[in-house]
């Protein structure tokens, strides 16, 4: 089974809606229709930008996929400050990042919470991009594989094979996020292969063959080619470099480098 590459821009808490519009317009200008045929391109702006970007994508018939960075798992209720998955789906959001390490480390999201969110995103006909990854300390203590395995098993628990085959897992070693340090292509490949093996064990061969696995952590135009040449790396989750349309376009166009 051939998996279509997916390259996603996680803007984190950057770009107000004016800056977001400019960035997406510039990105659209830089990308060719061939790029969208070869790669699924998604942008994940802050919530306050989503309506503006939805309108822009629709008006100009852009093939950029609209994404969010998080959501709650309940459909509605007394959850001050939270956003329901159904509200995102109504804005034509197609992808939701779930369990980013910043959510886990800074906002206390557990595997159980991540699992509820993954299910809620799927129930609303959107695609989760479920993140996993170890800290430097965990890597140094030889605990990286066990942690990632647990995150993948628990995060995807209770899903059907079909659901798993259609979602995205992002392996992001925490020590590589925003630090300029990237995992070597070999280390990134080894962990992405591990993720696929865990999916195969938990959900079967078809799910493992279909699930798309991104690498994330200081992805730049200069390292994307080597990362994308690995067998089990199907794409990238890009933070810092996705804020700049030129850099992000250069990453999406890795085939031309
Ligand atoms: P980075 O962030 O590319 O800035 O390292 C990646 C991420 O956190 O998704």
Which CATH architecture would you pick? Alpha-Beta Barrel
Helix percent band: 40-55%
* SSE pattern: EHHEHEHEHHEHHHEHHEHEH
Name the shape in a single word.
globular
What is the class in the CATH system?
Alpha Beta
Radius of gyration: 17 Å
Primary descriptors:
257 residues; alpha/beta; TIM Barrel; eight-stranded parallel β-barrel; 8 strands; 14% strand; binds 2-phosphoglycolic acid
Gist?
With 257 residues, the chain is an alpha/beta fold. The protein has helices at residues 17-30, 33-38, 47-59, 85-90, 101-107, 111-123, 136-140, 144-155, 161-165, 185-203, 205-210, 224-228, 245-252; strands at 6-10, 40-44, 65-68, 95-98, 127-132, 168-171, 212-216, 235-238.
How would you characterize the overall build of this protein?
With 257 residues, this protein is α/β, with parallel strands linked by helices. The chain contains 13 helices and 8 strands. An 8-stranded parallel β-barrel has the order 1-2-3-4-5-6-7-8, surrounded by 5 helices. Residues 10, 172, 177-178, 216-219, 237-241 line the site of 2-phosphoglycolic acid.
Give a topology summary:
Blueprint: E1 6-10, H1 17-30, H2 33-38, E2 40-44, H3 47-59, E3 65-68, H4 85-90, E4 95-98, H5 101-107, H6 111-123, E5 127-132, H7 136-140, H8 144-155, H9 161-165, E6 168-171, H10 185-203, H11 205-210, E7 212-216, H12 224-228, E8 235-238, H13 245-252
Parallel strand pairs: 1-2, 1-8, 2-3, 3-4, 4-5, 5-6, 6-7, 7-8
Helix pairs in contact: 1-3, 1-13, 6-8, 8-10
The chain binds 2-phosphoglycolic acid.
């Amino acid at each position: 089974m051939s998996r279509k590459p997916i390259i996603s821009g996680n803007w984190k808490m950057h770009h107000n809606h004016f800056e977001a519009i400019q960035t997406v317009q510039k990105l659209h200008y830089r990308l060719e229709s061939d790029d969208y045929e070869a790669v699924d391109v998604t942008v994940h702006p802050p919530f306050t930008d989503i309506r503006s970007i939805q309108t822009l994508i629709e008006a100009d018939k852009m093939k950029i996929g609209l994404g969010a960075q998080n959501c709650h798992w309940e459909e509605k209720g007394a959850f001050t400050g939270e956003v329901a998955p159904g509200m995102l789906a109504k804005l034509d959001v197609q992808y939701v990042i779930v369990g980013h390490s910043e959510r886990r480390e800074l906002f206390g999201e557990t595997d159980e919470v991540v699992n509820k969110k993954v299910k809620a995103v799927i129930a609303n006909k959107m695609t989760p991009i479920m993140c996993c990854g170890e800290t430097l300390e965990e890597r140094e203590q030889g605990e990286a594989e066990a942690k990632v395995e647990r995150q993948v098993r628990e995060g995807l628990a209770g899903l059907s094979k079909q659901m798993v085959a259609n979602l995205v897992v992002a392996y992001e070693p925490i020590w590589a996020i925003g630090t300029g340090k990237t995992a070597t292509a070999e280390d990134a490949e080894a962990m992405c292969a591990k993720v696929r093996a865990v999916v195969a064990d938990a959900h079967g061969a078809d799910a493992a063959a279909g699930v798309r696995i991104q690498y994330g952590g200081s992805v730049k135009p200069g390292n994307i080619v080597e990362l994308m040449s690995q067998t089990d790396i199907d794409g990238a989750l890009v933070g810092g470099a996705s804020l700049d349309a030129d850099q992000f376009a250069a990453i999406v166009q890795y085939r031309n480098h």
